[in-house]
Amino acid sequence: MVDPQMSVSLADVVVKRRGKTVLGPINLDLGGAGFTMVIGPNGAGKTTLLKVLHGVERVSGGTVQWSVPDDQARQAQAYVFQSPIMLRRSVRQNLSYPLQLLGLPKSEITRRVDQWAGNIGLQDALDSPAPRLSGGEKQKLALGRALIRQPKVLFLDEPCANLDGRSTREIESLLTAAATAGTKIIMTTHDIGQARRLATNILFLLGGALHESGPASEFFNSPRTSEAKAFLKGDIVE
Ligand SMILES: Nc1ncnc2c1ncn2[C@@H]1O[C@H](COP(=O)(O)OP(=O)(O)OP(=O)(O)O)[C@@H](O)[C@H]1O
User: Fold this and answer.
1) Protein residue with its CA nearest to atom 7 in ligand 1
2) Ligand 1 centre and the CA of 49: distance in Å?
3) How many Cβ atoms sit within 10 Å of the Cβ of residue 178?
4) DSSP string, 135-158
């Protein structure tokens, strides 16, 4: 990550639910800038891994160690859920809220809200109720609300699921700008094209295990395992 202090190590992390191992054991060191794309078939454990990294999934074994104390790590992270969660209030209130929680002065909040409303193309909808926005607009608002806090690490779970091409392109360009500005992005996707467009490195999960990982160019050009090859070809992999 751009801030060299923000990296994370997972040692023998296991998540069990109802007696079944849904993730792990995972051993992983994650650092460096850019996009880490978490890919794999349905049920492979992608969302569970994201939540483990963010510290909101109960682990049954192993350790998750950020290179800064846990409270600092959490403070420096944001998480965007697959179905955007927002306040039943205006776009402006949705963007202001995270900054109010940080206790920023009103003038600074107004400045950043105006700037981010422009970044996400909602400057003319600032006083509209957020629940009335389209799916693409809601997702852009969720992203704006996460990025307005300038997190060091941003987690996203399928941020473009069910969005049209135009909204997907707009979200990818917002994410690319954030990555260039120094936010480490860790996201899941079902869209291999999106993974190819964005990824710096890949985590390929299969059956709860980290089946293959490494730089994106290596993964896409010369996957090591037959399962990764099959997955990239579009075959059904279990
Ligand atoms: N609370 C839970 N109780 C029981 N099983 C769970 C629970 N949460 C997740 N699972 C199971 O854990 C496995 C991994 O789920 P997860 O949502 O992490 O996969 P995923 O790769 O994100 O899937 P998808 O691509 O479908 O979103 C699945 O088999 C799921 O059914």
Assistant:
1) 17
2) 10
3) 20
4) HHHHHHHHHHHHHTT--SEEEEES
| Alpha-carbon span 216 to 2, nearest angstrom | 18
How many whole angstroms from 117 Cα to the centroid of ligand 1?
34
State both tokens at 16. Answer: 């069990």
Query: Which residues are within 8 A (CB) of 72 and not within 5 positions of it... i.e. 6 or more apart?
Result: 66
Question: Which phi and psi angles does 104 have, rounded to 5°?
Answer: -70, 150
- Ligand 1 proximal residues by C-beta, below 6 Å: 17-18, 22, 40, 42-48
Reply yes or no on domain 8-76+151-233 having CATH 3.40.50.1010: no
3-state helix, strand, coil in the chain (%, to 5): 40, 25, 35
Q: Is the peptide bond before 25 cis (omega within 30 degrees of 0)?
A: yes
Ligand 1 atom, smallest distance to 18 CA: 4
pLDDT digits (tens, 9 = 90+) for 46-73: 999 999 999 999 999 999 999 999 999 9
State pLDDT tens for residues 163-204.
999 999 999 999 999 999 999 999 999 999 999 999 999 999
Ligand 1 centroid – CA 162 distance (Å): 19
Domain boundaries, given as residue ranges, for the chain: 8-76+151-233, 86-141
The model carries a pTM of: 0.94
Protein residue with least CA distance to atom 30, ligand 1: 43
User: In angstroms, rounded to a whole number, what is the distance separating the alpha carbons of residues 238 and 223?
Assistant: 17
Q: Could you tell me the distance, in angstroms and rounded to a whole number, from the CA of residue 44 to the centre of ligand 1?
A: 7
